[in-house]
Amino acid sequence: MSKQKKITILLCGILAAVAAVLVFLWSRYGYRTQSYSNTSYAMGTYVQQTVYGKNAQAAATSAAQAVTALEDQISWRISDSDIHKLNDAAGSTWETLDSYTISLLKLSLDVAQKSDGLFDPTVLPVTSLWDFDGKQHVPTDSELKTLLPRVNYKDLRINEANHTASLKMHYEGVDLGSVGKGAACDKALEAYKKAGVQAAVVAAGGSIGLYGSKPDNSGWSVAIRDPKTSDQKAGSVGTISMESGQFVSTSGTYEKEFTKNGKTYHHLLNPKTGMPENNGLVSVTVVCKNGALSDALSTACFVLGREKGTALAKEYGAETIFIDSKAAVYVSNGLKDRFQLTNSSTYHLAS
């Protein structure tokens, strides 16, 4: 055999060995760097996902389907949903509901009781009147006087043993809009875990859920929206370092608002007055280990105000960031080492 032929055979052998090693590495580790991003629409908002690892696309599809199924189950706007049935039967019969719907009602009632009714899942008569997603109507005093007596969480009754619930009075109604998007993040994380993906992030409206560790082992970082910026040019106040399994929800005046006769009205209503809560806050962010709870607490803490809201969050082991109209940022003790103010030209940390 000639020397040139021997060299050719040797090079072919080396190339074959390299190819075999690459194939092995790809099959063993390559999938871990795959990622898939997806945007769908549910619950009146965009649901954005980025999923890493094997089965990323299938996991994202399963998560989107789970969010849609949840909307079909708990939206008062959808005929035959659990909440539609419950509202239809107000003042008459008890309705049998899915166990997850019962758990969301129970969580909502717990937050309502601990906030002394400043978070109230039976606020539908008033939110319907304002109709922030539609006609955007400013209620008259007479309209509020008629409907406010129909907002009363104490009339929402639950029987966990047989999965039933009822509203005591006619014309009462439940609106789970203040827990729905956080609950959607809970459902998405369940889908990621079931699919066995490496990592994922899901955002539904003002709620975000985090799962697993990113392929490059970098930590999760979530930006807090600058309330002074528009949707088209959204900026951030700062960032929070987050961990797998954590959820963050923000309630801000900028999310839904309209201006009529020179006055701007936002959607964060005080259930006792039926009017937007104007206590000097512009946004509240809550971090905890349950999406539905973080969503509920962000609304409750906004209406309660900084002092009482901080105390309520502490009862649930949650952390908070309050931002007021004077650009002061109040960070709870558990987040002080994890929050970084990035927009110091506009905002300042307060104690």
UniProtKB/TrEMBL annotation:
Record-linked InterPro entries: ApbE, ApbE-like_sf
GO molecular function: metal ion binding; transferase activity
Enzyme Commission number, as recorded: 2.7.1.180
Free-text remark on how the cofactor is bound: Magnesium. Can also use manganese.
Binding site for Mg(2+): 178, 295, 299
Enzymatic reactions: L-threonyl-[protein] + FAD = FMN-L-threonyl-[protein] + AMP + H(+)
Cofactor: Mg(2+); Mn(2+)
Keywords on record: FAD, Flavoprotein, Magnesium, Metal-binding, Transferase
Keyword Ion transport in annotation: no
A Pfam family it matches: ApbE
Family: Belongs to the ApbE family.
Protein name (database record): FAD:protein FMN transferase
